[in-house]
Design a protein that fits this description.
five-stranded mixed β-sheet; 35 strands; disordered C terminus; mainly beta
């Protein structure tokens, strides 16, 4: 009942502010002695942090479960409120929510409204209540009017349900006019096509995100009444709302000129990072813009994330999850922003998953080697070139040390993105990997024009071995390069490491060279 009262208070408490959107989620953790533990998070964004405090906390938020997320000075502030219910009722209901007036927008939406569908009955497939879909986005996303942009919302569902997106309708919004410049697909891709200057300005975006079972399930309430939900029926629904701004045309839409371009070791969109409760994780972000000055990293994520900068275009997000974050996959989204004269440019939106395991590992003296029972195979192809005239072919074996992490028990599949070129040390490396995990054991092969084979084994320092299953990461790579492994080992190894981190491996992974065979071919 406390959840209901909490949301109704939000509905009737109104002050004059400029609203920049909301992202609401709820999740059920495993059964505790007192019942199921429900975690409700509500990220609200306004034009200033003072406006948030005035609306949510009647000016003073001290002593409440309210946490600052991030802010863009003079534009928006996002904070997250956390509501923990130790013993929620097994029931279902929806609650219409009203916040404040939207910030000025081109699609004429003044009053904010949203609708949350809670499904708290016991599910027959997982034997516990449903958890809502999970996603995230920044309060303000901007794009020049002459540049194509796709925003791929990174969505997930703790129960493995199918997640679909659509524009809000009916009671889900007060005025439901969608942005004329933005389309949304059921797979949660928002698409913007170049438009003329008359369409420039801010738009209010109001989405409804729903989860659908992948097979029929039965929902049971406290009095044992049951309902069958089919694959065509949504289970729960959450609001995702933000501001989309179409800026004046940019001199160039090429990433890295005016619009910031991400560089390694920035993780790819959709990368999966694993950590444990009370174990700190870092996300390193690097970007460049040759004709603009990079000014800041803007992000949205769970509470208590620290943001730091180590020079222009280099940023770090640092987070230590607590017990309330355990057992869930958290979505971090970020953009890099740059200025040129009076113009502001954003990079594309990039989001990653950080999955927090419930049972943290216990630290022990360094370098404990695990006897793994499960394997993963990665087969990339590397090509490195310089201006020298000699080609060298090498066969190399490496081992991988991943400190302070226990791999998720899976099963899971990582889908690689298209080949990416990394330029460091005046060298270019291209990596095209494929992952396979077992049990049962499987073999993954890949046709490559070879020059190098690389194998990694994994050890985990500073951790007590978990009984498993664990995963050995084996890297078979073929490298053709004019660099000498003898003289350029650091350059080659650093590029391999950067690429592995960019594809989602922990940032503290250590690569160790075991042995190598070098074949030299001289061209005439």
């Amino acid at each position: 009942m406390f959840l209901f009262v909490f949301l109704v208070l939000l509905m009737v408490s109104r002050v004059e502010t400029a609203f920049y959107g909301v992202v609401y989620t709820y999740s059920y953790l495993d059964l505790q002695e007192s019942g199921y533990l429900a975690i409700n998070t509500e990220k609200l964004s306004f034009s200033s942090c003072e406006e948030y405090d005035s609306f949510v906390c009647s000016v003073n938020c001290s002593g409440q479960l309210v946490f600052a997320v991030d802010e863009s000075s003079g534009e928006w502030c996002q904070k997250e409120s956390l509501l923990v219910l130790p013993n929620a009722s097994l029931t279902t209901f929806n609650i219409p929510v009203s916040y404040t007036n939207w910030t000025e927008n081109r699609n004429g939406i003044e009053l904010s409204a949203a609708d949350v569908q809670f499904e708290l009955r016991n599910r027959s497939d997982i034997n516990k209540p449903n958890s809502s879909p999970r996603t995230n986005i920044l309060p303000l996303v901007r794009v020049p009017s002459n540049c194509q942009r796709n925003i791929n919302l990174l969505v997930s569902d703790p129960d493995g349900d199918e997640v679909r997106c659509r524009y809000a309708a009916g009671v889900e919004c007060h005025t439901c006019t969608p942005p004329s410049v933005l389309t949304v697909s059921p797979s949660c891709t928002l698409s913007f096509s170049p438009t003329n200057s008359s369409a420039e300005g801010p738009y209010a975006v109001q989405l409804a995100i729903e989860d659908f079972p992948r097979q029929p399930i039965t929902l049971t309430n406290e009095s044992n009444s049951q309902e069958v939900i089919t694959t065509s029926n949504s289970i729960s629904k959450i609001p995702v709302q933000f501001v989309f701004r179409v800026d004046p045309a940019a001199p160039s839409c090429t990433e890295g000129v005016y619009l910031p371009r991400f560089l390694p070791p920035t993780p790819e969109n959709g990368a999966q990072i694993y950590t444990d409760v009370n174990q700190t994780v870092q996300i390193n972000v690097r970007a460049e813009a040759t004709q603009a000055v990079i000014t800041e990293l803007l992000f949205s994520g769970p509470n208590n994330v620290a943001k730091s900068s180590s020079g222009s275009g280099n940023f770090t997000l640092t987070w230590t999850p607590d017990v309330f974050h355990g057992g869930l996959s958290h979505t971090f989204c970020f953009v890099v922003q740059a200025n040129s004269s009076i113009s502001v440019y954003q990079s594309d939106l990039r989001c990653v998953f950080v999955t927090t395991r419930s049972n943290p590992t216990t630290p022990t003296p360094p370098t404990t080697v695990i006897d793994f029972t499960t394997t993963a195979t990665l087969t990339p192809s590397f090509t490195t070139t310089t201006t020298q005239q000699t080609t060298t072919t090498e066969t190399t074996t490496l081992s991988s040390t991943i400190p302070n992490s226990t791999p998720n028990p899976g099963p899971f599949t990582t889908t690689p993105t298209p080949p990416t070129t990394v330029a460091d040390f005046t060298t270019t490396a291209t990596l095209t990997p494929s992952f396979t995990t077992t049990p049962p054991p499987t073999t993954t092969t890949q046709q490559t024009t070879t020059t190098e084979t690389t194998t990694l084994s994994s050890t985990i320092p500073n951790s007590t071995p978990n009984p498993g299953p664990f995963y050995v990461l084996a890297l078979n790579a073929k490298i053709s390069t004019t660099l000498s492994l003898k003289n350029n080992t650091e350059a080659i190894m650093q590029q391999i490491k950067d690429e592995l981190i960019r594809r989602g491996l922990p940032s503290d992974i250590v690569l160790k060279l075991i042995n190598s065979v070098e074949l030299e071919v001289t061209t005439t």
